[in-house]
Amino acid sequence: MRFARVPLDDAAGAILAHSLGVPDGRIKKGTRLGPDEIERLRAAGHAQVVAARLDDGDLPEDEAAARIGAALAPDPAALGLTRSAPFTGRLNLYAATGGVVSVDAEAVRAINAVDEAVTLATVADRARVTARQMIATVKIIPYAAPEAAVRRIEALIAGRPDPLIRLHGLVRDSATLILTRVAGMKPALVEKGAEAVRARLRALGIELAREVVVAHDEDALAAALADAPGAMVLILTGSATSDRGDVGPAALVASGGRLTRFGMPVDPGNLLFLGELAGRPVIGLPGCARSPKLNGADWVLERVACGLDPDWSEIAAMGVGGLLKEIPSRPQPRTGEAPREASGEADDEGTGRWPRISAVLLAAGASRRMEGADKLTEMAGGRPLLARAAAALAASAVEEVVAVLRPGDSARAAALQGLGVRVIENPRAADGMGTSIAAGVAALAPGIDAAMIALGDMPDLDPADIDRLIAAFDPAEGRAIVRARGAEGAPGHPVIFGRRFFEPLRALEGDAGARAVIAEHPEFVVDVTLSGRSALTDLDTPQDWEAWRARQAGA
To answer: 120 with 162, same domain?
Structure first.
């Protein structure tokens, strides 16, 4: 790739390296310069620009990121992952559910040693993650990467017997908790320990099959162990376990179980013990488990719950990074508290998780220019146009599709049957598109991060177009409004609005749509170029339909 300062006369086709101001706004870095951009830059007084050009053998940043992402997760669902579309050279992998991530650290280091243009960052091996949390990101640093480097990385990944990164979800979903009580121990202390463990189980999604308090006595504990239901057993003793022959380990052996490990090089958490009883894991919790703060028992419990039972060598390796007393707690909840977005308090400040974006499909127009026909129920590719648009949205990464119809429009409602679309009616549809946007945004579920405003009469959008728009949404990077545009640069649809804009969207009136919201906040807008005319083609008139069908016949 060549990176240099070039005169505007020689800049056609180059990639702008730095955002520049022009009379009608800014041309953002990463824009491929065409005649329109060059004229706007010239009008702003720029005679030259810093730009990049790809050499033979270079891959554009998004293509390179997409190939590496596909190599890492060719079947994301099988690995417990969700894969974003690439945007500005970045592709993210997210956790599809909560669980524990396994990462081959050596392989990640090998990938990052191939070429400085290509980077892969992941969470730590055996990190516990929550649903929708980002767990890996591929980033192409410049605007292109050598194809030879991408091929080397693809070969490195393909040559592995196991996935480089995968999510291990919950496999042990029930547990018995046995607490022992020594003479004179206050009931409040027993309850404090029980609640701390219950909270950990809730946070992991584990059902408490039984909870029992017994005397701190080998026989009493052995009897409780022998009768314990659930996929695993947790023991919290009233007195710290100080030896393999102490009450907890001895009771495990007496009940027919086997002790596999006593003690661990993690502080707090030293006095944990591990064992097995009738094919089920038994975890003897250290006294520090009475506190919600991170301790070694959390690492063991999380892995055991996800079927990643740690062996002797894995526990021994926990010593590096195992000094926990002075480090801040991890951000993932271990106390059963709901993630913020589950409570409907999500914002769009960038949380490192897969965004929840719902589509508002506008389908309440009157088709006044169709000479008596209804454009949304006209057949397009073997199905009604409205159904075609809804199906493309439903097959994308949007959380939900909310279709806004006129009151009593049974024909359009019928076209949406079986597509998983939630239909609402706008009693003020006749007042204009703004009221339909307002009604659709008001109907979104709590916790949604952004709304994608989509039109029901656009036949050429496909799920890949929609996912590319979603990949561009990143309020933490200033991209809180994402607008599709045509290959020639004209603005089009759909448009994504972050949560911070929901209030003005819900207040819209008339037929102006959301253009005023975009105009008032240009600093938050990013334009994403879609292929061909997919962002621009809508079918408002019989002439539009005739031209579109002619293009389809000639394709």
So the answer is: yes
